[in-house]
Write a structure and sequence with these properties.
Helices cover 55% and strands 16% of the residues. The protein is an alpha/beta fold and 170 residues long. Helix 1 packs antiparallel against helix 2 and helix 7 crosses helix 8.
Length: 170
């Protein structure tokens, strides 16, 4: 069942705030970013998360935004980023435009070499076009996947350079 359908089904009960939080986690989007995309004030969304009442027009905007995000997820080429959670938390947006094309970043948290390899295999199965990871795990990941792999070296603007490198390999 799609996320927007679950939201609509949760309206008749007090489960909507919890379901909305769950959807945001699944879409890997913060409340602040959702506010920008949906044009719903952050304060309104915060009240909804806290169990406050809201208008039908706000519900429609929420559902439409979730639908758009789900469709974007299906239509856009995806690039995996495999890293420790603290590094992934530094990524502020999930959609990047490189060489005139938009790409959706999918985060895969990993804390060990084994986690990285498992995440890379999972990402490839989920249809990502490329993988970005740390230099220390890149050679192992390249041995188990058939998609391009680029490394991110911790320095200013390193992530964008890695993104450009991997896109040029697709």
């Amino acid at each position: 069942m799609r996320a927007y359908e679950r939201l609509l089904l949760s309206i008749d009960s007090d489960r909507f705030p919890e379901e909305f939080k769950r959807v945001l986690l699944e879409l890997n989007i913060s409340l602040k970013e959702f506010s920008k995309i949906s044009d719903i004030p952050y304060s309104t969304l915060y009240k909804i998360i806290q169990g406050g009442d809201f208008r039908v027009s706000t519900l429609k905007k929420i559902v439409d935004t979730v639908k758009k995000f789900e469709m974007k997820d299906e239509e856009m080429d995806k690039i995996a980023v495999i890293a420790a959670r603290p590094s992934l938390n530094n990524i502020k947006t999930k959609v990047f435009k490189v060489q005139g094309k938009e790409y959706l970043l999918k985060e895969y948290p990993a804390n060990s070499l084994e986690d990285c390899i498992v995440a890379a295999i999972q990402a490839e199965r989920e249809g990502v076009k490329a993988i970005i990871c740390a230099p220390i795990v890149s050679s192992s990941i390249e041995k188990v996947v058939r998609v391009p792999v680029a490394v991110v070296i911790p320095e200013k603007n390193a992530f964008m350079r890695a993104l450009e490198v991997v896109v040029s390999k697709i």
